[in-house]
Amino acid sequence: MFRNAAAISLHLVGLLQGKKAGASVTRHLHQTFTMAKQMQARRLKGLDYNPWVEYARLATEYDAVNLGQGFPDFAPPDFALEAFQHAVSGDLMLNQYTKAFGYPPLTKILASFFGKLLGHELDPLTNVLVTVGAYGALFTAFQALVDEGDEVIIIEPFFDCYEPMTLMAGGRPVFVSLKPSPTRDGELNSSSNWRLDPDELASKFTPHTKALVLNTPNNPLGKVFSQTELELVASLCQQHNVVCISDEVYQWLVFDGCQHISIASLPGMWERTLTIGSAGKTFSATGWKVGWVLGPDHLMKHLRTVHQNSIYHCPTQTQAAVAESFEKEQLCFGQPSSYFVQLPRAMQRSRDYMARSLQSVGLMPVLPQGSYFLITDISGFKSKMPDLPGAANEPYDRRFVKWMIKNKGLAAIPVSIFFSLSHQKDFDHYIRFCFVKDESTLKAMDEKLQKWKEELRP
Ligand SMILES: Cc1ncc(COP(=O)(O)O)c(C=O)c1O
């Protein structure tokens, strides 16, 4: 009917000026807007704001040293890069679909590698599911297990997607906070000082509790849950017949001789635990987006139902690269040449360098026992400069990070975003830095901090 855009617009102008069928145009526009109003599914209500976008944009705009987002800016190990090259240049069939629940060599090596660590023989077909990153694993787990009205206990501070994933599945998040205990004067704070109150945790379990989300080592705090703490969580999960979704993506990143313990390895926990991992975090290749879930078949079969009706299949070549990387790593596991020994050693040095550097301007570190991240206490700044620009109800840490990006050229992430709305005000005096960065990035950070220190001199 219309040959070009100009003809269409002339027609519409005509219609809008009421020259023709004015009522039908109004009706048409009304229908369009009514449709637009109905577009968003109810389960997405309130979930559209994503704070990360704003801080990333500001970091770019002010050309800040970006210690916000959690990814290494150095290369993955050579053996992993070679494995990736083999995957894209070798067997042509790696360009095609593979098994829906995981490329067989990958599910096989994951089963044997983690079977030993969990003290449980794993069947590659029924106890392993390969997903699009740990994000995909989490989403699949929530969709598979959480029903309308189910309660999900989330330990704060928490990796921020747990809450929307619970809500999107129709569940109700129930929060319980790790709380810091005071340190002695001059003593450096540690993530191990942040603990759960056993009575408070127990009080969160109700007949509606379906799952508890555990994240050890924790993002953003870096806390590594101790055997005693895990035993407490395990006994409550067993007592109340609750599934534990255990996010262990940073399991190799533990420092100071600290031990990572998988809760699934505790007596009686294999049957009720989904253990989630990430090749991105494991091999410093976050763009690969290969993750996995390990668990008992009676739970995994529901995750497979979600997977086969959503993603269905993850890229074959990246799965092949991860399989070969694990095969290589298995040969030297536990030895000094192992990447799982070398990476945490190097990152402990980066952590300590960052901690010293931040302290020079009064950003007081809470030394993490594990993970990519270090949080610092900014209470000193909060009392000295309480009136930073920003909305009156905006938590202090968010205003501080914006101020720091703009004025000091350093980007971090406010920690209050890792807390539920009602607890954000109580935890608005911490900010998170990622130290899994190249030496040059950490040096650039130090230069900014030394300049800041000079400015502080009276
Ligand atoms: C605790 C935690 N779980 C899961 C993920 C997601 O991992 P992936 O990149 O494999 O999807 C992250 C990423 O930052 C994380 O910090």
Automatic annotation (TrEMBL):
Organism the protein comes from: Erinaceus europaeus (Western European hedgehog)
Co-factor(s): pyridoxal 5'-phosphate
Name recorded for this polypeptide: Kynurenine--oxoglutarate transaminase 1 isoform X2
PANTHER family for this protein: FI04487P, KYNURENINE--OXOGLUTARATE TRANSAMINASE 1
Protein family membership: Belongs to the class-I pyridoxal-phosphate-dependent aminotransferase family.
Domain of life: Eukaryota
Annotated InterPro entries: Aminotransferase_I/II_large (IPR004839), Kynurenine-oxoglutarate_AT (IPR051326), PyrdxlP-dep_Trfase (IPR015424), PyrdxlP-dep_Trfase_major (IPR015421), PyrdxlP-dep_Trfase_small (IPR015422)
Pathway: Amino-acid degradation; L-kynurenine degradation; kynurenate from L-kynurenine: step 1/2
Aminotransferase class I/classII large domain ranges (all copies): 63-441
Taxonomic path: Eukaryota, Metazoa, Chordata, Craniata, Vertebrata
Keywords, comma-separated and alphabetical: Aminotransferase, Pyridoxal phosphate, Transferase
Substrates-to-products reaction catalysed: L-kynurenine + 2-oxoglutarate = kynurenate + L-glutamate + H2O; an S-substituted L-cysteine + H2O = a thiol + pyruvate + NH4(+)
